Amino acid sequence: MVEEKPKVKYKINYDIETKLDKNNWNNKIFSSKNSGQFKIIGVYSQNKYKAKNYICEFLDTKYQTIANCSNIKKGNIEDNYKPVLYNVGFYGDYKGSIYNHPFYKTWSYMLHRVFNAVYLSKYPQYKNITIDKRWYNFSNFISDVENIIGYNNLTKYKGIKFELDKDILLHNNKIYSLKTCCFVPNKLNSFFINKQNTNISGFEGVGLTQNIYYRARVNRDGKSIFIGHFLNPLDAYEEYHKQKFKVLEYYLNGEFRWVDEKIKLAMYKKLEMQYIETINNNI
Length: 283
What we know:
elongated
């Protein structure tokens, strides 16, 4: 059962409610085709000249909607609070074409990363990641989107691919939420992928050459730039970190100089935190 309950949205119109309504409709249990059982809790109509509709409430989620007699009998009503993605994500009170909404993919992919078993088996680092339950509700998510740091740049720089990031503002954060997320260019987000675990040396950016020298390389604009050869991996990594810091400055003072200042400061801090963690992991 979905934990978040919708507020009572409709007022019963007692002026047009008849004895027949009370006896034949109100508080009886009906079944929908796809969303489970519901009951009618009252008559709804804006005025007496409009067709009579009924307020329907689903038993599992308490979601309320309006339907006429025909759709009630046929079961043609939907519970927008019933989970439709990974048994947690639901549409809420959003009205309109869900799949055509510009942030539907962002929302659904966030759920995919956290709840899709196949994805988690491939990327086990996401097994400890959670999502603020408020964002299980799509209508809540889109109402919060405009308040996510970096949102204003989405329309200014339409040619750039942006991603919803959870751990730049707060390093090693484990939850997707309004307070912790920001929109950043994909290129900058990828910059912080720490690949130290895939290197024989144990240090990001450092490889072993001829089983003798440790070679340091840094990536910039999609190109691998040679830094130098070193006798031990720690020296190689120290130089690699210095150069990576310069690459970040290169991006934030150039191509991405328009990125929000709060995000910039968080990126410099994150790079330093990654450095400290790498050193500690190899002591």
